[in-house]
């Protein structure tokens, strides 16, 4: 039952109170509820709170229609007239349950739509991959996940940072598991063998990172599909990273690796007619003409090129790329130079776009680059995994940089980095698997967590490869103020306490995410209501 904040007129009820003893009891309940609400908002379990009214316009669900910033424990039943749920629709609202059973017309769910709440059970809907946003159920209290019939894709970050999630049964229909989809959970076993053994399968970078799992079971490679071919399997960087025991062995075995190329013959591919181009746009270069040997060669980008297409020079065994003639180049596509032997210094041209479109995902990943000369173009953003798995030992980031993507410099040999003051976001796993010492990693992780983008919309996991336990390991047995002003108490292992606790003779209560309850009440499962002081957090008598 949801009791709204209203002024109750005793005069209106007076006559009924005199003639109806039962009504007197009702009035008493209303009076108590009003007192509790004036103390502050009530925290209750999801099954005790009805759904607040929703803001739906032209089939798009934007969230709740009232002006409240929190709806603790509320249930969201997605109506059958909703076709789309907007980005951040219910982000950080404190909701306790979401029900898609009536949403028969639902076609898409936006980024962070249900992130940072108190959901405990979730049914993942069967929607087109392109219509599912990132980090949909990130940072909740999920302990049970079920999947709608026919689900083939689990999108990036979908269930990341759900520390109560200890097991998941993946559907047989799965063909893709996104980057960081289950990162930061507590899966004890990662079992992919529930997936149909003849399926193609793409498992993204960091998909199961930091679970502390002791066992990983992957799909066998000896079964042929209906076409008589071996299924295509792809495992990203650090897919099973930061786990334990046998899982660590699997993580190493299935880590994304460079090909082992032979030496080849040195020389350059430097004439415009040596390349192929997009028939619809001849300034877009798409690769090297068939029959031209690329192993050991340097690619010289011609001066007429404005864009390098996705996958253009992927896995060709080239040793260098020369942009000196490419005075009009604006974009380098996804995987454009992925998995080669590009070594030493990479010099990027000044003519590149300054925004995220300049360098695509994995553009230079899996090479041997030891140094990057950045373009002098006011570059503001670097894309996901763009320079991952190289030989970088240090990196001087441009002072115009505002955003670095997920895994951008993952799996290098970087020992330290200075984050420019212009920087607003550092992506998940951005500098993971490098050579930072733990103390420096913790310091840099804390700096990232205090960036404005993280306070307003938090979804960064292990930017420097430090797990939650490691990042808190230096602070034990004391209260710690978080960047958003809330408080936690870290135990002897450096982990946040949860639930009802007695510390130094004082009774406190901590939410499932470790934040201390202050200035409002909590209804326990036995129905008892407990109030906590707004300043100290002490339980009030």
TrEMBL record:
<dbReference type="InterPro" id="IPR032675">
    <property type="entry name" value="LRR_dom_sf"/>
</dbReference>
<protein>
    <submittedName>
        <fullName>Leucine-rich repeat protein</fullName>
    </submittedName>
</protein>
<keyword id="KW-0472">Membrane</keyword>
<dbReference type="InterPro" id="IPR026906">
    <property type="entry name" value="LRR_5"/>
</dbReference>
<dbReference type="InterPro" id="IPR018337">
    <property type="entry name" value="Cell_wall/Cho-bd_repeat"/>
</dbReference>
<dbReference type="InterPro" id="IPR053139">
    <property type="entry name" value="Surface_bspA-like"/>
</dbReference>
<dbReference type="Pfam" id="PF19127">
    <property type="entry name" value="Choline_bind_3"/>
</dbReference>
<keyword id="KW-0677">Repeat</keyword>
<keyword id="KW-1133">Transmembrane helix</keyword>
<dbReference type="Pfam" id="PF13306">
    <property type="entry name" value="LRR_5"/>
</dbReference>
<keyword id="KW-0812">Transmembrane</keyword>
<feature type="transmembrane region" description="Helical">
    <location>
        <begin position="21"/>
        <end position="39"/>
    </location>
</feature>
């Amino acid at each position: 039952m949801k009791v709204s904040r209203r002024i109750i007129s005793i005069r209106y009820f007076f006559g009924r109170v005199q003639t109806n003893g039962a009504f007197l009891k009702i009035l008493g309940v209303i009076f108590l509820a009003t007192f509790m609400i004036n103390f502050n908002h009530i925290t209750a379990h999801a099954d005790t709170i009805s759904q607040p009214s929703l803001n739906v316009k032209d089939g798009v669900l934007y969230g709740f229609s009232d002006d409240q910033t929190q709806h603790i424990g509320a249930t969201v039943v997605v109506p059958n007239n909703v076709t789309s749920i907007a980005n951040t629709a219910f982000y950080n609202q404190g909701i306790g349950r979401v029900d898609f059973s009536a949403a028969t017309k639902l076609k898409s769910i936006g980024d962070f739509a249900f992130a940072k709440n108190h959901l405990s059970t979730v049914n993942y809907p069967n929607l087109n991959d392109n219509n599912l946003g990132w980090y949909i159920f990130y940072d909740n209290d999920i302990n049970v996940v079920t999947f709608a019939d026919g689900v083939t894709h689990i999108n990036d970050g979908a269930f990341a940072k759900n520390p109560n999630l200890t097991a998941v049964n993946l559907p047989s229909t799965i063909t893709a598991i996104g980057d960081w989809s289950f990162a930061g959970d507590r899966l004890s076993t990662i079992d992919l063998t529930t997936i149909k053994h003849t399926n193609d399968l793409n498992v993204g970078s960091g998909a199961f990172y930091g679970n502390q799992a002791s066992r990983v079971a992957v799909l066998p490679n000896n079964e042929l599909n209906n076409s008589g071919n071996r299924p295509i399997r792809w495992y990203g960087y650090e897919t099973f990273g930061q786990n334990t025991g046998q899982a660590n062995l699997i993580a190493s075995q299935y880590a994304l690796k460079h090909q082992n190329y032979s030496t080849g013959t040195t020389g350059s591919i430097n004439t415009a007619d040596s390349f192929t181009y997009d028939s619809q746009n001849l300034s877009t270069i798409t690769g090297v003409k068939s029959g031209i040997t690329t192993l050991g060669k340097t690619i010289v980008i011609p001066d007429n090129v404005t864009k390098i297409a996705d996958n253009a020079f992927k896995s060709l065994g080239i040793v260098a790329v020369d942009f000196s003639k490419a005075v009009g180049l604006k974009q380098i596509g996804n995987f454009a130079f992925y998995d080669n032997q590009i070594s030493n210094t990479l010099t990027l041209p000044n003519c590149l776009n300054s925004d995220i479109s300049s360098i695509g995902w994995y553009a230079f990943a899996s090479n041997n680059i030891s140094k990057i000369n950045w373009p002098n173009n006011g570059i503001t953003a670097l894309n996901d995994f763009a320079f991952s798995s190289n030989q970088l030992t240090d990196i001087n980031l441009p002072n115009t940089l505002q955003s670095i993507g997920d895994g951008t410099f993952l799996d290098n040999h970087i020992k330290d980095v200075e984050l420019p003051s212009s920087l607003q976001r550092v992506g998940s796993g951005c500098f993971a698997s490098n050579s930072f010492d733990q103390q420096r990693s913790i310091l840099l992780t804390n700096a990232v967590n205090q960036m404005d983008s993280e306070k307003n919309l938090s979804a960064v996991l292990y930017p420097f490869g430090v797990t939650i336990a490691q990042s808190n390991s230096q602070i034990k047995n004391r209260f710690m103020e978080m960047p958003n002003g809330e408080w936690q108490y870290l135990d002897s292992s450096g982990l946040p306490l949860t639930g009802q606790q007695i510390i130094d003779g004082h009774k406190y209560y901590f939410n499932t995410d470790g934040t201390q309850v202050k200035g409002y009440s909590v209804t326990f499962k036995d129905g008892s209501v407990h109030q906590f002081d707004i300043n100290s957090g002490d339980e009030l008598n």
